[in-house]
Amino acid sequence: MMKTEITELLEIEYPIIQGGMAWVAEYHLAAAVSEAGGLGIIGAGGAPASWVRDQIRELKKLTNKPFGVNLMLMNPEADQIAQVLVEEGVNVVTTGAGSPEKYMKAWKEANMKVIPVVASVALAKRMERCGADAVVAEGTEAGGHIGEITTMALVPQIVDAVNIPVIAAGGIADGRGLAAAFMLGAKAAQIGTAFVATDECIVHQNYKDRILKSKDIDSRVTGRSTGHPVRTIRNNMTKEYTRLENEGASFEELEKLTLGALRKAVVDGDVDNGSVMAGQIAGLVKEQLSCKALIEKLMSEMKSTISGVSVNE
Ligand code: TUI
Fold this sequence. Notes:
Number of helices: 14
Strand content: 5-15%
Structural class: alpha/beta
Bound molecules: ligand TUI
């Protein structure tokens, strides 16, 4: 147990939130994290509303603990999913890749806790004004769709700019990172990559192995030219994408390469030609653990990190 504004708000035991990753964060992973005392999150990604509803119902069969759903705002069925979350009585919603302002009224009326993921101070302030309960400040170290500012610079600036609690994300995979998040003023951490490499995560074993074997320099960002930068582990796909991007390929051509690429890596295990989304911290993730063991490791390392800091007068 550890008490922070976020554990109190979400009624969870540990200040650890699992990222709502598209294709990756389905109900098995989310249920395992929630059962272990963190906040598990189902990632709606680009999936249809009916899939999201089924996932919520399956998760509820595995745990009675609080959980969340991430609504990726570029999803073509975002409006329907926003409504499904209300109908299914979801306690916590996080959002990504946009502003959830138009859903805020309905969600607050349904007593849901709304936690937008933001990559700038301006959006964090706007989210606070429209009624968000907390924000996830996600630095550019994160995997998937990213902003420009590093976690180290973003978190304290957002902490100073808003009065709601801040959850740090991007580049956190162990207890030292969790301790650092607290030092920057965050009240919890959202962790993605390290949870991908857990026993309960359903991604293909090739995907987990690619994370476990990756090094610090293996991270790449594609799509800056389209305005949708995405961080993955380098492979044939990133090489080809970068080549096309440098040749000034059209948005449509680039889209063709990425369409279905995440599914290819997650489901088919084609980690050479698919999109292996992961954060810059992937190089630190060296062993596959259960969700419970990962959370216990994060908490004990965090405590020893903080108690190991001594300031001599
Ligand atoms: O959303 C994420 N990470 C994601 S979403 C995703 S699915 C996808 N796959 C391929 C291409 C694009 C998306 C994979 N990873 N993280 C949260 C996040 N949100 N990071 C950055 C942002 C963000 C960016 C711009 C939030 C808002 C924003 O602008 C909003 C506005 O209207 O000002």
